[in-house]
Design a protein that fits this description.
By secondary structure, this protein is an all-alpha fold. The protein has one domain (about 10-125): Nucleotidyltransferases  domain 2 (Four Helix Bundle (Hemerythrin (Met), subunit A), Up-down Bundle). About 55% of the residues lie in helices and about 0% in strands. The chain is built from 4 helices and no strands. Helix 1 (about 10-30) packs antiparallel against helix 4 and helix 2 packs parallel to helix 4 (about 115-125). The protein is globular.
């Protein structure tokens, strides 16, 4: 999706999710190549933001109200309660909630291998 294609709040969430995923992928590559000095938590924050915005896009597309939250598990539950079809490994993304607002300021995770797992799941969702 391109910025010019945005026609609804659902489109906006999806566009922003793609931007967050692009950022995470770019930063992960630079991190792996030692071309930038960055905390791995920044990459996980972008992945968390992507997951959150994809779920909000799904809900928005169906005109389902959702609270202002960064809790991925709660957003998944709302999707399931409203019988929205999600991918099989969606529960893997719940761990990303730790990287929302509070998690940005603490060292939570240092396993870079997990980032690629999340990227694959998020790409399936988009």
């Amino acid at each position: 999706m391109k910025k010019d294609d945005i026609q609804s709040s659902s489109d906006m969430y999806l566009y922003k999710a793609q931007v967050d995923l692009n950022s995470a992928k770019y930063l992960l590559e630079a991190f792996n190549n030692n071309t930038i000095e960055i905390d791995i938590e920044k990459i996980y924050f972008d992945l968390q933001q992507c997951a959150e915005k994809i779920l909000k896009s799904f809900l928005s597309k169906e005109d389902i109200l959702f609270p202002r939250t960064h809790d991925i598990e709660h957003l998944i539950e709302i999707c399931q309660e409203n019988e929205l079809q999600l991918i099989q490994d969606i529960d893997e993304l719940i761990e990303l909630s730790d990287y929302a607002v509070n998690g940005r300021y603490a060292i939570i995770h240092d396993d870079i291998n997990e980032a690629q797992k999340y990227i694959i799941i998020l790409e399936k969702m988009i």
